[in-house]
């Protein structure tokens, strides 16, 4: 029976990673007598055999801690000169590790799938604040990001009201508008702009003006991946990330002066940035992450290599890397239309 497993966290961090680690270790030790180690800094630790022991004493009290105790990086498992399946197999054999648990987003799932095909026993746990993975109803970290963004909207509204300004808040999410949609609804935004639905500057200004005409301070929430109809790509001026994808961000700073110029209403932009990924996870995310971690101990006990755990309704289920890698989950237009009718 496979007994000793290595856990890694790869890609961008996300509130709830530590709760997953704790859930897996506690259930694995208690129910199956499994042992765990953690690979440091994502795939780097796997490629170079850089590990820490993970037992009950190490994961104690971890579920409320943000970040990841293992560290993370954008290093890939096939990175030259030492990456690739043959070296990784040797590392696993030398360390007596029977399987790998990779907690990560789309890039991690893609790398895990390739490793699986190259003979590495591996399972996955989906994570991202963006909530854009199809295989799961919600990813842990998303709820925390929405709470943080909602608090930011609440705060911006009080200062916006004092100065009678239009406040434009930019939130993360890459090419999915989930964080913008949920925080925008929760914070009562007057317009929510998402990547899935271009809106013209005339339309945005019409919403802003109608709010102003009612004597209110307009609040606009924009997702970093939002595009005006004339934009071919989402706004990006910061080069590429570790996966060669354009780093997004800054669209609020483009929109605010456009709104001010066209409406005559003073406008201010706030880019919320990595605040959305830091700090303690919400209770919802702690519960979800703990349950996913515990279900991962079951997965490796059953040697379900190539599988991932996911949330469907209120159930934790098993899915595959292929399913997780299917088209990203974007906001359906009918869900956007549902709230759009009350903008302005
Ligand atoms: O995927 C999570 C995310 O926070 C996105 O919302 C954002 O575009 C990106 O990562 C930022 O990445 P980095 O931490 O590399 O700047």
Automatic annotation (TrEMBL):
- UniProt cross-references to InterPro entries, sorted A to Z: ATP_PFK, ATP_PFK_prok-type, Phosphofructokinase_CS, Phosphofructokinase_dom, Phosphofructokinase_III, PKF_sf
Pathway per the UniProt entry: Carbohydrate degradation; glycolysis; D-glyceraldehyde 3-phosphate and glycerone phosphate from D-glucose: step 3/4
Which positions fall inside the Phosphofructokinase domain? 4-299
Catalytic activity line of the entry: beta-D-fructose 6-phosphate + ATP = beta-D-fructose 1,6-bisphosphate + ADP + H(+)
Q: Where does Mg(2+) bind?
A: 106
Give its localization: Cytoplasm
Gene3D superfamilies, alphabetically? 3.40.50.450, Phosphofructokinase domain
Positions of the catalytic residues? 130 (proton acceptor)
| Any single Gene Ontology cellular-component annotation | 6-phosphofructokinase complex
Q: For substrate, which residues are the binding ones?
A: 128-130, 165, 172-174, 224, 268, 274-277
GO biological process annotation, one example:
fructose 6-phosphate metabolic process
E.C. code: 2.7.1.11
Q: Which residues are recorded as binding ATP? A: 12, 74-75, 105-108
Q: One MF term in GO for this entry?
A: fructose-6-phosphate binding
The cofactor named in the record is:
Mg(2+)
**Subunit record text:** Homodimer or homotetramer.
Q: PANTHER family annotated for this entry?
A: ATP-DEPENDENT 6-PHOSPHOFRUCTOKINASE 3, PHOSPHOFRUCTOKINASE
Q: What does this protein do?
A: Catalyzes the phosphorylation of D-fructose 6-phosphate to fructose 1,6-bisphosphate by ATP, the first committing step of glycolysis.
Q: Which NCBIfam families match?
A: PFK_mixed, PRK03202.1
Q: What is this protein called?
A: ATP-dependent 6-phosphofructokinase
Question: What are the leading ranks of the lineage?
Answer: Bacteria, Bacillati, Actinomycetota, Actinomycetes, Mycobacteriales
* Encoding gene per record: pfkA
